[in-house]
Design brief:
The chain is of the alpha+beta class and 214 residues long. The chain has 2 domains: 51 residues; 153 residues, Jelly Rolls. The chain is built from 1 helix and 14 strands, in the order αββββββββββββββ. Strands 1, 2, 3, 6, 11, 13 and 14 form a 7-stranded antiparallel sheet that branches. Strands 4-5-12-7-10 form a 5-stranded antiparallel sheet, with no helix packed on it. A hairpin with a 2-residue loop joins strand 4 and strand 5. The termini are far apart.
Amino acid sequence: MLWVIFLGILLLAAVVVVVAVGLKRGSKGCRRRNKNGSGSSSSTSSSSSSSESLVYGEFVRPFTFDEENVALPIVQPGGSLIFPVPTVQPVGMSYIDATGGVGLLVPQGVYLVQWELNPSTGAAVNLLVNGNDPQTILTDTVSIQYNYAKAVSISPINFQYLVVAPLPVDNLLSLVNAGDSLFTLQSIPNTAIGATSLLTHIRAQRIAPLPPQT
């Protein structure tokens, strides 16, 4: 009878040892998976946040006049339009007015750019990226480039375009006089408050990171 009890105790002890070892291994494996999984998720989240972070800004050029000062600003051929005043604090972009260029410095990505102004009739105004006209290909079979971000004024200009900023940082978005003669910037209709009006209004927002090159 004693030997049966002794064998039972040994069997019970063996079962307890096996169960304890199994639980310990399972706990280690779970911790290892959690560690690896959380690291991967954190890295992916950080990378995604970096590439898709918000970049936007809105800028205007106000103009104050009175009865004795009605001469509105002019833009020489090849000259840049200025719009130095942000309506709110911009995020991820800045306005510059320097010898290297006049406009918005933005990081890489695809941008929706909307601009509004009221130049004298017949003015040609270009939206440039790094000093170049944004282009598209007209056909699938023949690589014909077309400059698409140009407007000739017969009335107040209010356009929006999707453009690509290819450089990692400091892409310049600018508006220039693309014609052969100077033009006058008039007040944008319905923006005058007292003796102050808006002459140039531009919005830019990054809507996507740069698409992969094919």
